[in-house]
Amino acid sequence: MAEHVDRLAEEHPPIPVDSADYSMARPELLAETFGPVLTYMSRVELEVERNVLELNILLPDPPPVDKHFYADVWLPQETHHGLLLDRLQSLAGLPPADPDLTKVKFSYRLLGSLGRWSAVQDVSRMLYYLTGVATEQSAILAYNKLHDGLLELGERAVASTIIAPIRRQEPGHFAYYKIAAQGLWAEMAPWQKWLVRTLRRHTFEPVGAYTKRQWAEFGAVMHHLGITTEGGGGLSRYAQQIGRLERDLLWARKQGLRVPAYVIDSLKSAAKLAAADRVRR
Questions:
Q1: Contact yes or no for 43/97 (Cβ under 8 A)
Q2: pTM of the model
Q3: Range of the domain at 226
Q4: CA–CA separation, 269 and 260 (whole Å)
Q5: Torsion angle, CA of 117/118/121/127, rounded to 10 degrees?
Q6: What is the pLDDT of residues 17-54, one digit of tens each?
């Protein structure tokens, strides 16, 4: 794991904001087509500063490799992703990102206080890894669709110098969380696994969605990326992709389960909230 993190740091330094080509053929059309996507994703990427604050509370005594990963590698990479996207949306005529960098959930503080016991902290670590897997898988899928969509609009400069470099960094993050989750799950006691299943079932949420408004915004992202408008069950396929690891780890005993119900239910709720917003407008 330590070698993987060191390799990520060496091979994928933070992308310089001034390295991108922000020239756009039709900025108004780009903003109309993908504005909600850029707004949401730039906000989520820039909130990693608060995410690290949450992790410092949630994991009072984390393994050194975890802290090295999220503080020294993941944080600067993701922050630069947010800066790149925020500058792009501003140049396209959209409002700048408005990340919340201070508000920490009470549940994080509670788990952090209990995390003085290593067995409880391992439960928190497992939830952190699972969230990381779902988040990074969502990011990979979103950046792939955004890249293809920008090429269809003829926006080759921003697709190749902003979105392509960003999406190249996400799989390394995904791999870290996946390997860490598989390793820790194999070491957990039955009661810890039961607790992880219970907490995950009741706390799963779409990436970056902490309020009802943000759930609707996430639903709008799925809509603008074509996830909820694809024929043949696009939303179900998306849910299966982001929920595959926890299906295989947490729910392996449930033969034939394609995706945990809480994953698909959350995405459907976000899509319904976004659809209701569109009707009201």
A1: yes
A2: 0.93
A3: 2-280
A4: 15
A5: -140
A6: 999 999 999 999 999 999 999 999 999 999 999 999 88
